[in-house]
Amino acid sequence: MKVCRAQIDSTSMLRKIQRFLRYTAHAQLLPALESGDDPLIGGQAVLEGVMMRAPHSYCVAVRKPDGEVVTEEGEAKRLSEQNKFWGLPVVRGVATLFQAMSLGMKALNFSAQHAVEEEEGKGGEAAKEPAGWMKALMVLFQVGFFIFLYKFIPLTATGQLQSLFPALDNQVGFSVVEGVIRLGIFLTFLFAISRMKDIHRVFMYHGAEHKVVFNYESGKAVDVPTAQSFVTWHPRCGTSFLMVVMVVSIIVYAFVPMQGFAFQFAARLALLPVIMGLSYEVIRFVATRQASLLGVIAAPGLWLQRITTKEPTDDQVEISIRALEGAMELEKNKGGRLVIA
After folding, report:
1. Splitting the chain (341 residues) into consecutive groups of 10 residues, what average pLDDT does each group show?
2. Does the first or last residue of the chain, that is N or C, have fewer Cβ atoms within 10 Å of its Cβ?
3. Neighbours of 39 (CB within 10 A)
């Protein structure tokens, strides 16, 4: 009996670890999966579903293992409407990203509770929501992992190369090499994680979300056949945003004095909000001016969406439409006005 109990506990622990790793992988992809900005219709792929948001509301639609569709709607008030400071250029990018990530984590938590069948209970039963301390621990882990992967490692690696190649002993050269290493890490991580079955399905929902947003922006009736006629890559996608961040960070870091590792590392953390804000302005500009030079800069992000978006099934597009309808309905009930880019 004790052996059986130990085996059950071991299996349960393994499942929890697998869920945590899957959750961690998805959370690291949140910036790449999120699309749209605060005055526009946008969305995000979650586990077996999609979150769509309007200027002041959002709706998450998730398909449970038994086929039932569950939704969660709520308000998503813009910070810029509460304080004009958050609506200033560059600053609004930081505010929008913070709000999008916060809402994205909330949507991911909702989908994680309903999309995965609870093995320890009855089939199809939603998993219990993580405790507050566990959520805080997860957030700290995500932030720490991000800083280690995209700040600490590139800076350390470039410092090592600098000792071997004196030609890198200048701010511009150092920043360019560091940026290439950072981009290499990002692409490697993205390619590796795309091989996971669960993440592949998330990328399909990501494609469904983009198709439905395109359908809505076209002014045509939003339905599955019409949505399926659109492409899966979108200029306001978080994948494009991250690629722009890579380019902008190279330019900004080129002005950071080379005064030792500690100073450079601290400067990179301190300048992160500035880089995010500037990148947001670029994406916002590019979204309506694809033929401009900035459109050329954003092109690699559109190419990269061939990885982060996949052709969805009709069922996945239906979920995306359900999420859009929920967000639109709540927005209209609150007197909001939907804006098309």
Report:
1. 48 57 57 52 86 88 90 82 81 83 84 66 50 68 85 93 86 92 89 82 91 90 94 78 86 88 92 90 70 62 82 95 91 58 32
2. N
3. 17
